[in-house]
Design brief:
Blueprint lengths: L9 E4 L9 H17 L2 E4 L11 H14 L30 H13 L3 E4 L3 H13 L15 H9 L5 E4 L6 E5 L3 E5 L7 E4 L7 H11 L4 E5 L6 H13 L8 E5 L2 E2 L15 H7 L3 H9 L14 H7 L10 E2 L2 H14 L2 H8 L17 H11 L9 H9 L7 H8 L4 H13 L6 H14 L4 H13 L7 H8 L1 H16 L1
Length: 503
């Protein structure tokens, strides 16, 4: 049963512009977007680009382009969704963290002044030594609070030594309990959540500070993110309480941690896995609707007996309360099957238009002037039920546009390696020449009659004809294909096959 939020929903999607977007990231964006649209809430698109060594403008542009291709529109973000503006859109601009550094500095200073944070002068070597000692004694190995309550004299002594200091947040000495929207009530004891760094020694703010601060100032009500960030939630809740006391936040958001997406070997799908890159699916010709349909099933279910649904149906049905906490396995074959179903759902004209990028350079292996739009539009309805992804279309219809069919020796051997294919093709050619080329049934009867003369059923009789004309043993309905290709080209190709057989 759906839960009705008590306040207007504001969710955020906040990727880092590093590398190509991956499907796990898209699943997170999708669940946030679907929940915002389901509740009539707001989708905030924010860019976490404080890591100058890894972030790039190329990746930033890819993120925007990917969101637009998928149709995951945002209400506030670093640029307009429709591309009408490259400037930030929304009341909480800017939406790129690299442009908010002064704000983070101000928050950190106020946290220090109020005692919610403190300077830590411990060196890396000292921290490592104390952690090793704690492990050896069977104690928690997190930060031990060494600098938590330094006196003014101790601080002055450390500074006189020239020690750099980071800023640590002071965790409360009490358990933190919260209700995860996916996993239920969770309690974390204080010994399991030590004080943590929020500002580096060089003054650069860390993710542990900037992410909650942005969520607070942008009034995010629901944080839906990956399960890998669950352990940071108690720290962020404590920081939220401090931000509320300082007037930076109004309330603590609800948290929902989405299940892992697992890849091969039952391991968490990583950006380095070949099947993880969004670009692969886009280049292969997945429909955005098909890919989003499948990704929504990674941790959520539309119903017990329905896996195929439209995006409007997804929006109507989706509730984060229905997300399953168990890991979800990425299954490429199921993704392809669902995409194929969405291709079938397209209006024939929309299907023909969607395929056209694959019928022109650089995907097509024929000259642009050889592309026959009338022939394509005629055969498109027959192709729509045969392709899994749009890129499949090239191999299915290339016989229409190539000057000669593809040379596939395996197909040739399979179709021409038994019996007397030359005799069959000679008979079939004669009967096809006399057939009615405005009627595929007449072409079928011609090949059927040729097969009967040689003691072959239709399936065996049409195989040499198909390979002679298309170069392949499988493909679109043969006789409709012959009709669209035309009598002259068909007979010319049969003649070429006969010449090869009798050479």
């Amino acid at each position: 049963m759906a839960n009705t939020p008590s306040v207007p929903v504001r969710v955020r999607f906040c990727p880092s512009p590093t590398g190509n977007p991956h499907v796990g990231l898209v699943r997170t964006a999708l669940f946030n977007w679907a929940y915002a649209r389901h509740t009539g809430g707001t989708m905030v698109f924010r860019i976490e680009d404080t890591d100058a060594a890894r972030d790039s403008e190329e990746s930033y542009d890819q993120l925007l382009d990917s969101m637009r291709w998928l149709g995951l529109d945002w209400d506030e973000g670093p640029a307009a969704y429709d591309g009408s503006s490259v400037e930030a859109v929304g009341p909480h601009a800017p939406y790129r963290q690299s442009q908010r550094m002064d704000l983070y500095k101000d928050v950190a200073e106020k946290l220090l002044a109020a005692g919610h944070a403190y300077h830590c002068y411990c060196s890396t070597e000292e921290l490592d030594a104390r952690r090793d000692a704690a492990r050896a004694a069977g104690k928690p190995s997190g930060y031990d609070g060494h600098c938590r309550d330094l006196t003014a004299d101790q601080k002055q002594a450390y500074e006189a030594e020239g020690r750099p200091a980071i800023v640590r947040f002071r965790m409360p000495d009490e358990a933190i309990t919260f209700t995860d929207l996916v996993r239920g009530e969770i309690t974390v004891l204080p010994e399991n959540v030590p004080d943590y760094g929020i500002v580096r020694a060089n003054g650069a703010p860390l993710y542990t500070l900037v992410n909650p601060v942005d969520d607070a100032l942008m009034e995010i009500t629901h944080v839906l993110r990956g399960e890998d960030l669950l352990s940071s939630t108690p720290r962020q809740i404590a920081l939220y309480r401090a931000l509320i006391s300082l007037g930076f936040a109004k309330a603590i958001p609800a948290f929902g941690h989405l299940p892992y997406v697992m890849g091969e070997g039952n391991k968490k799908l990583s950006k380095r896995d070949p099947q993880a890159s969004l670009n692969i699916y886009r280049e292969r010709g997945f429909l955005p609707e098909g890919l989003l349909n499948y990704l929504s099933l990674l941790g959520w279910s539309f119903s017990a007996d329905q896996d195929i649904f439209t995006i409007p149906e997804l929006i109507e049905k989706f509730d984060v309360a229905d997300v399953n906490a168990n890991p979800a396995r990425f299954d490429l074959k199921k993704a392809e099957s669902i995409n194929a179903d969405h291709i079938r759902l397209l209006d024939p004209k929309a299907f023909a238009e969607a395929c056209e990028p694959w019928l022109t350079a650089p995907h097509a292996n024929w000259a642009p002037e050889d592309f026959d739009r009338a022939a394509w539009e005629a055969i498109a309805p027959h192709a729509q039920t045969r392709v899994t992804v749009l890129s499949d279309i090239t191999a299915n219809v290339d016989f229409l546009f190539l000057k000669t069919p593809v040379e596939d020796e395996a197909s040739w051997t399979k179709a021409m390696g038994k019996g007397d294919p030359a005799a069959l093709l000679t008979t079939a050619r004669a009967k096809l020449e006399a057939a009615d080329w405005s009627d595929p049934e007449s072409l079928k009867n011609a090949v059927l009659a040729a097969g009967e003369e040689h003691g072959l059923k239709l399936g065996k009789a049409q195989a040499p004809v198909r390979v002679a004309v298309t170069g392949r043993t499988v493909g679109l309905p043969l006789f409709e294909s012959l009709e669209i290709l035309g009598k002259d080209k068909t007979l010319t190709r049969i003649d070429a096959a006969l010449a090869k057989l009798t050479a």
